[in-house]
Amino acid sequence: MDSSLPCFLLFILIGCLKCSSENENNTRHHDYCVLGAGPAGLQMGYFLSKAKRDYVILERNSGPGSFFNKYPRHRKLISINKIHTGRQNPEFNLRHDWNSLLSDKPDLLFKRVSNEFYPPADAYPLYLSMFVEELGLKVQYGVDIGRIRAVQSDTGRSYILTDQHTSDYTCSVLLVATGLWVPQKIEFVGSDLVEGYESISTNPEDYKNQAILILGKGNSAFETAQSILEKASHVHMLSPSPVRLAWQTHYVGDLRAVNNDLLDTYQLKSLDGLVEARLEKIVIVQRKEQAKKRSDGKKKEKKKLYLSLKKYIQNQGEKNSSEVTGEDLPSFYSDNFSMRKPYDRVIRCLGFKFNFSVFDSSACPPHSDNAKGRLPGVTAWYEGTGTPGLFVLGTAAHSRDYRTSAGGFIHGFRYTARAVHRVLEQRYHNNRWPSTKLLTTQLLSWVLKRIGEASGPYQMFEVLADVILLRGSQCEYVEEFPIQALPQFSSLSGHEISNHGLIVVVLQYGKKKNVDYLGRNRAHSDWSKANESNFLHPVLYYYDKLPTEEEMKLRPKGWALPRPKAIHHIVEDFLTEWDGPVSHIQPLRRFLEHCVKTDLRTFYAESCFRFSLTYRKPPLFCQQGYLKQQGVVDSSQLWQHFDDAGLVPSEHDSGTSGEDSAFPNYLAQAGASVSSGLKLDF
Ligand SMILES: *[C@@H]1O[C@H](CO)[C@@H](O)[C@H](O)[C@H]1NC(C)=O
Ligand SMILES: *[C@@H]1O[C@H](CO)[C@@H](O)[C@H](O)[C@H]1NC(C)=O
Ligand SMILES: *[C@@H]1O[C@H](CO)[C@@H](O)[C@H](O)[C@H]1NC(C)=O
Ligand SMILES: *[C@@H]1O[C@H](CO)[C@@H](O)[C@H](O)[C@H]1NC(C)=O
Ligand SMILES: *[C@@H]1O[C@H](CO)[C@@H](O)[C@H](O)[C@H]1NC(C)=O
Fold first, then answer.
1. Is residue 320 part of a domain?
2. Is residue 332 located within the same domain as residue 370?
3. How far is the CA of 358 from the centre of ligand 2 (A)?
4. Which Pfam family, just one, is annotated for this protein (predicted)?
5. Which of 330, 568, 574, 651 has a CA-to-CA distance to 300 between 20 and 30 Å?
6. 331 Cβ inside 6 Å of ligand 4
7. Is residue 519 part of a domain?
8. What is the pLDDT of residue 659?
9. Which ligand 2 atom is at minimum distance from the Cα of 144?
C-alpha cells in the first residue's frame, strides 16, 4: 500500500497534465490507433497492450463488436464452437474453436459465454466485453471517426483522425479494423423495389404464404431462406453463379451445411428453387396482378413483383421499371420462363463492402483487384498499398486470401493480426519476429509438434506458414509468417537467410479440380502417393535462397509458393494426426535429411560410442548429444545392466533389431529406425 501510493499520486498528476493538455489543444497523439473494437481491433489491442505500446482503440458505438448486435439478422453464428475435442492441448483446441481470440489467458475462451455448437450472435459482444475487461484494453467508445487524412512531416508520415466533435487524433500507425458495414448493392431496373437483408423483417410470420425471391446464394441469403422456408409458399434464389458448397470448396465463406435446407426442398421438388442469371441483366417490375374473377364477382387487386430480363424488354435501357408493360414480360411470349410467376417480395442478400468514404484521398487505400473491388487492396503484410503505416485488419483484409483461406473470418484473422503485430514490432521497435533456435537434430520433432498442434497455419492454410532457417548444425524456427511476403522475409522479420537455405511448412489442400469430396478414392493413405493428397495436409518447400518477387508473381497457377528446389508432401490423414512412424515420420525425416544433407536419426549412447570409434564424423545426433557428454554416464554398473537386459548387441545379431517382438511388424518391414521412438501426446 505504502509503496503504491506515490505511484498512484504520480498517476493522477500525469493524468491531470494529460487532460489539461488535451483541453487546450484538442489533439491527442498515439503511436498506434486501432479503428474499431470488433474482434480484429481487440485482437490487435491485446498484442499492443502486451508489448506495452502507446495505443488506443477507437469505437463509434457504446460497446465492442456492435456488428454482432445486428448481424447475422437471424442471430445464429455459423462459426463452430467445438468445446469437446478429447484433448487438453490449448493450441490444438483452437483448431476447432472458431470464435475465441488469442491471448495468454488460457480460460479467456468463447466457451465461457456459450456452449452451443452454433452459438447465438448475442454471445459475441458479451465475449468481447469480457476480453476487453479481463485484459484491460484501452478502448474509447462513442468516438465516431468521420475523416482520416495523412500528413507528411519531418518525423515521417502520420494519420489524423477527426471524430464527430472535430477532435483530432494523430497516429504514427493506423490499424483499420472497421469491418464491412455497407450493404453490397447491384443496380438494375427496378432495384429500388427490393428489400435489403439489413432491414428485412426476421419474423417468419410476415412471410406467410408469400412467394419470395432472394437475390444472392451466399450464407446470408441461405440463412434468410432457411428462416422463412416453413412459412413462405415459394422461395427462389437468384445469383450469377451456381451454389458453391463450403464442404466442396473448403472455403468457409461458401454455403455451409448448417443453412442449406433449401437444397433439399429444391432437389426433392417441393416448391423452392435456385436460378442463375446476371443480376445486372434482370428487371423487376411492380404490376397489379391480373387477378382472376373470384366466385363473388369481386376483383382482388394486389401489387406483385414480376421478374424479367433486359433482353426481353423492347427499347431496353430507355424504360424504367414503371413503364414496362405486360407485353414486355417474358411470360407473354414464352410459357417456359422459370420465373414467370410473380413474387410478393424480392430480398437482396449480397454481402457487405468496405466503407472507403471515411478516407481522404491522402490516406485512402485502393480498391482490391478481386472481390469486385469491395475490399481495400493491401500488401501481403496487410499494409495498404500506397498508404505506408496504414494497415487493414479483420474481415476487410480478406482481399489477400479471398475465396481461398479463412482471412475474412475470426478464426483466420486472429492469426493475421498477430502477424501484423510482429511486422510492427520489427519495423518500429527492432524486435525480431519471435523464433526458436533448435539443434538440427531437434528439427524433426519440432516440425511434428507444429503440424500436430499448431492452429495458425491450420486455419490460415496456404497463407501463414512456418519458416525454418537452416544454419548447418543449427536452425531457427519462425512461426506463422505470411508466405506471400516471403521475398521481403528478411526486412519484415529481421532474420537473415544463410546459404543453407530455408524450408517453408505449409498446410494446403490438393490442387486437383473436380474432386468428388464424398466419392470413392477421394483420399489417399499411402505415403508414396502423398503428392496426390486432396484434403488438408502439410507440404514442405525447400529453397536454397529466398524466392524473389518476380518468382512469386510467376508461380504456377493455384500454388501458394513458387516451385521449390525440393518439395515434400506429408500424406493426408483421416485423423489429421501426422505422427505415424512409417507413413509420416520416416518420409519426413528423409526429406529433412535431404535438405540439411546429414543423417538425422537418433541413436542410443552405445551406438554413438561405436560410431565415434569407427567413423571420422559420427552422425549429427551423436555429435550434438553423446559427444558433448550428454550421453549416458559411463559406469560399470550401467554396462552390467545393459548386458543383463540384452541391449548391447553381440556381433552376430546386430542389424536384426526388426525381429524384436516388442516392435510392431509393419515398422520392421518399412525399415523404420528403431530409435525414432517419438511419442507425441498433444
Ligand atoms: C497539440 O498537441 C500535439 C501532440 O501533443 C502537438 O504535436 C501539437 O503541436 C499541439 N498543437 C498545438 C496548437 O499546441
Ligand atoms: C461510411 O462512412 C461515412 C463517412 O464517415 C459515414 O457517414 C457513413 O455512415 C458510413 N457508412 C456506413 C454504412 O457505416
Ligand atoms: C420513369 O420515367 C418516366 C419518364 O421517362 C418518369 O416520369 C418517371 O418518374 C420514371 N420513374 C422512375 C421510378 O424513375
Ligand atoms: C422455351 O422453350 C423454347 C423452345 O420451345 C426455347 O427455345 C427457349 O429457349 C425456352 N425458354 C427458356 C426461357 O427456357
Ligand atoms: C505425384 O508424383 C508422381 C510420381 O512422382 C507423379 O507421376 C504425379 O504426376 C504426381 N502428382 C501430382 C498431382 O503432382
1. yes
2. no
3. 7
4. Pyr_redox_3
5. 330
6. no
7. yes
8. 44
9. 5
| Cα–ligand 2 centroid distance for 303 (angstroms) | 34
Q: Using an 8 Å Cβ cutoff, are 371 and 399 in contact?
A: yes
Within a domain: 665: no
Structural domain span for residue 140: 26-182+353-423
Q: Note whether 387 and 511 are same-domain residues.
A: no
The larger pLDDT score, comparing residue 314 to residue 164, is at 164
pLDDT one-digit tens code per residue, 415-431: 999 999 999 999 999 99
- DSSP one-letter code for 279: G
In one letter, which amino acid is 216? Answer: G
Residue 190 Cα to ligand 2 middle (Å): 25
Span 214-265, pLDDT tens digits: 999 999 999 999 999 999 999 999 999 999 999 999 999 999 999 999 999 9
Helix (H) or strand (E) holding 572: none
Ligand 4 in reach of 335 Cβ (< 6 A): no
For CA atoms 382, 384, 386, 390, the dihedral sign is negative
Pick from 412, 44, 348: nearest CA to 196: 348
List pocket residues of ligand 2, CB cut-off 6 Å: 146, 181-182, 355, 357-358
Looking at the CA of 524, name the nearest ligand. Answer: 5
Last residue of a domain, one of 567, 595, 623: 595
Specify whether 482 is located in the same domain as 402: no
Q: What are phi and psi of 412, to 5 degrees?
A: -105, -50
Residues 452 and 569 in one domain: yes
Question: Which ligand places an atom closest to the C-alpha of 533?
Answer: 5
User: 237 and 210, same structural domain?
Assistant: yes
> What is the Å distance from ligand 2's center to 140 Cα?
19
Closest C-alpha to 482, from 567, 570, 405, 566: 405
Strands (E), 425-495: 435-439, 464-471, 474-482
